[in-house]
């Protein structure tokens, strides 16, 4: 908008046009430009239409989520269109080095998620920033969520006594074909933003600022299909790459009492005191065999998921957000007993203990050797109790008919650290607790 | 003069004052660059004579000797890569890897050390390698001649310290460089030697600007050498050569990646620190 501010009213072309015009005359110099302007030679020029290479515009680049708080962002925060999970090995060899790393990460995340301007450096030096978003960055809805893997609690950092109770190295389930290069890690960073430029910029900033401290182990990027707002204000869940809505049964993130039960560690979880307001993060890279899926009859697809594909409604009808009812269907004649949603959440007494908060993204990586698409789901879920949550749910899903069409190949379990207040750093309560134990 | 100019230019652009106080004058670099050229020429001379032995062994069909000479010969080249790479065609014909070619080892234009490595360590034979050996020897002689006539650009020399660590970070820590012979640690040491040599030559100048920077560089060089020493063929003897890269433990790989990345990052500021354009 500021492009227009320096023009007197009634000027026949926009500031952007004038700037371009002047740039175009760079060799001729300002004198020639002034002559041209005074001559009114361009007064009849049409307003410029968009150039092919103009940056696409978005009104959401200023959107930001507060970084400081009791809990970290990026968990109950509404999921934006772009996500990335990056897993790292920590190269620091002692707790002092780990603390330096956590302080650096906290400082970078605080900056990146709020936006700002980078320091200019003598051009004989490498610039401090990649520059891919320009010298000033907008937050663009960015959240970066820091979690730690079980391996961080080995003998390197003196943290073994304060490990969260359920934190463990992910073990393959029966249908998994885990690729060691895409599993586990000392630290995970979940990046979520409105656009991919923002998540990639943030990752590169963090890598640039942590030499010798972190080594990238694997990363997986993903997206969520964007939908137009509906006139009645209602919302629907996004679809996965199998064409089905994903997350319909997610517990509502704006219900803080429910989130306290489902997502956040509190006094009831018998976890170390420092872990309160943290959460368990389960990550799975689940390849979908989409060509085969697309050759499967719709009624079979729906029986496998236990929902109608187009509406997302339960098998017995209605709309997406109608609750599935199984009481009158004990034999699974309407919703098969081995359908995905019925196994995952049987809605029996006590199964609410196994609720998880899903935050998945669809991924598309390339082409397999057989010419088939390498795409699927970057599954990310949060829960206060990893055993009762993801692990229990996944055990129930073992052997489900959907397995014919999916193959989990990577991921890991992490513990998302509690939030941080200004002046402190992420993980400080964990390090302090370990020092009390030693 | 140049100091004043530096400060004025920096001020004009509103740059960060802390990094724009280079007091190094261009003539301060004359001696380091001269010394570096001597270092390069000395290494090239040795490279040439070792290449002769290596290629003679291949032509004589002595597989075992050729295998033994492969890694020790390359070290001299790896040390002087920032200069060798100024001759892009020669660098490609001497040191390209099979994944630089669309058709890999089958590509008829794939020549040089790594083509020979494929024959010696993958096919375990010197058969059909004679022409590649001849070509390598002649390329190395051309390189030696070309470098003698070369004026060394200071920014290439000083920038070479970081470039060598980029080499290590890109292909040595992953074990991609010598995928058939697994002699990556030799190349690693060669790159490290070359980087350290450049740093040592300009160290007094760098120390005037930023002693803490010098300390950090030295600390990280030492850390790498400490880890590499675990893999000497004879304990405590750097000249004994290196164990196969697949013997390197996961922990030591991490212990190498950290300081290598720090050095690549820190040394990328060396040109700026010395006021080079």
TrEMBL record, chain A:
One of its GO terms (molecular function) is peroxidase activity. Binds 1 heme b (iron(II)-protoporphyrin IX) group non-covalently per subunit. Residues 72-222 form the Dyp-type peroxidase N-terminal domain. The keyword Transmembrane helix does not apply. Protoporphyrin IX binds at residues 247-249, 307. The keyword Oxidoreductase applies. Involved in the recovery of exogenous heme iron. Extracts iron from heme while preserving the protoporphyrin ring intact. This is Deferrochelatase. It comes from Halopseudomonas aestusnigri. The lineage of its organism: Bacteria, Pseudomonadati, Pseudomonadota, Gammaproteobacteria, Pseudomonadales.
Automatic annotation (TrEMBL), chain B:
Keywords: Signal. Residues 1-22 form the signal peptide. Gene3D superfamilies: M75 peptidase, HXXE motif. It is found in: Cell envelope. Residues 36-268 form the Imelysin-like domain. One of its GO terms (cellular component) is cell envelope. Belongs to the EfeM/EfeO family. PANTHER family: IRON UPTAKE SYSTEM COMPONENT EFEO. This is Iron uptake system component EfeO.
């Amino acid at each position: 908008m500021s492009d227009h501010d320096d023009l007197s009213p009634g000027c026949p072309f926009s500031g952007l046009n004038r700037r371009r015009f002047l740039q175009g005359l760079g060799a001729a110099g300002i004198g020639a430009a002034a002559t041209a302007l005074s001559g009114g030679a361009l007064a009849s020029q049409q307003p410029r239409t968009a150039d092919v290479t103009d940056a696409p515009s978005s009104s959401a680049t200023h959107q930001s989520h507060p970084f400081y708080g009791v809990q970290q962002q990026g968990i109950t925060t509404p999921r934006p269109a772009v996500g990335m999970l990056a897993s790292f090995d920590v190269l620091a060899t002692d707790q002092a080095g780990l603390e330096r790393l956590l302080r650096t990460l906290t400082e970078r995340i605080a900056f990146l998620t709020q936006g700002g301007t980078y320091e200019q450096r003598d051009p004989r030096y490498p610039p401090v920033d990649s520059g891919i978003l320009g010298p000033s960055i907008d937050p663009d809805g960015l959240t970066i969520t820091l979690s730690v893997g079980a391996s961080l609690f080995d003998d390197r950092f003196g943290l073994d006594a304060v490990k969260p109770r359920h934190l463990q190295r992910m073990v393959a389930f029966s249908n998994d074909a885990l690729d060691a290069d895409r599993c586990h890690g000392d630290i995970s960073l979940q990046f979520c933003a409105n656009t991919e430029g923002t998540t990639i910029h943030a990752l590169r900033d963090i890598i640039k600022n942590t030499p010798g401290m972190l080594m990238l182990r694997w990363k997986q990027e993903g997206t969520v299909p964007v939908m137009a707002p509906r006139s009645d204000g209602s919302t629907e869940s996004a679809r996965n790459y199998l064409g089905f809505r994903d997350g319909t049964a997610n517990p509502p993130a704006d219900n803080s009492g429910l989130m306290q039960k489902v997502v956040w560690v509190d006094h009831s979880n018998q976890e170390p005191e420092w872990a309160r307001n943290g959460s368990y993060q389960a990550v799975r890279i689940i390849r979908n065999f989409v060509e085969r899926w697309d050759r499967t009859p719709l009624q079979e697809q729906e029986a496998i998921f236990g929902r109608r594909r187009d509406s997302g409604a339960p098998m017995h009808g209605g709309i997406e957000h109608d609750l599935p009812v199984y009481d009158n269907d004990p034999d699974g004649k309407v919703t098969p007993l081995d359908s995905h949603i019925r196994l995952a959440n049987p809605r029996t007494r006590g199964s609410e203990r196994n609720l998880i908060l899903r935050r998945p993204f669809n991924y598309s990586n390339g082409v397999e050797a057989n010419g088939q698409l390498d795409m699927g789901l970057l599954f990310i879920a949060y829960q206060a109790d990893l055993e009762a949550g993801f692990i229990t749910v996944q055990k129930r899903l073992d052997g489900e008919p959907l397995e014919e069409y999916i193959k989990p190949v990577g991921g890991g379990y992490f513990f998302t650290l509690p939030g941080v207040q200004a002046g402190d750093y992420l993980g400080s309560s964990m390090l302090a607790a370990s020092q009390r134990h030693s | 003069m140049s100091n004043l100019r530096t400060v004025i230019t920096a001020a004009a652009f509103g740059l960060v004052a802390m990094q724009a106080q280079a007091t190094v004058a261009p003539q301060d670099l004359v001696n380091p660059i001269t010394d570096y050229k001597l270092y390069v020429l000395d290494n090239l001379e040795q490279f040439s004579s070792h290449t002769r032995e290596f290629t003679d062994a291949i032509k004589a069909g002595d597989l075992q000797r050729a295998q033994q000479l492969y890694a020790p010969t390359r070290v001299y080249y790896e040390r002087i890569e920032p200069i060798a790479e100024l001759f892009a065609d020669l660098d490609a014909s001497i040191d390209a890897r099979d994944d630089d070619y669309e058709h890999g080892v089958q590509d008829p234009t794939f020549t040089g050390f790594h083509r020979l490595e494929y024959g010696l360590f993958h096919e375990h034979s010197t058969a059909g390698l004679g022409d590649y050996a001849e070509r390598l020897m002649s390329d190395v002689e051309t390189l030696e001649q070309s470098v003698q006539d070369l004026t060394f650009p200071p920014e290439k020399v000083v920038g070479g310290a970081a470039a060598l660590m980029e080499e290590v970070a890109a292909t040595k820590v992953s074990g991609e460089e010598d995928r058939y012979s697994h002699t990556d640690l030799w190349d690693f040491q060669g790159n490290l030697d070359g980087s350290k040599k450049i740093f040592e030559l300009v160290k007094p100048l760098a120390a005037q600007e930023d002693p803490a920077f010098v300390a950090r560089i030295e600390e990280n060089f030492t850390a790498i050498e400490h880890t590499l020493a675990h893999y000497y063929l004879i304990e405590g003897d750097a000249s004994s050569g290196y164990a196969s890269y697949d013997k390197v433990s996961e922990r030591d790989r991490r212990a190498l990646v950290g300081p290598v990345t720090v050095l690549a990052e820190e040394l990328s500021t060396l040109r700026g620190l010395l006021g080079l354009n």
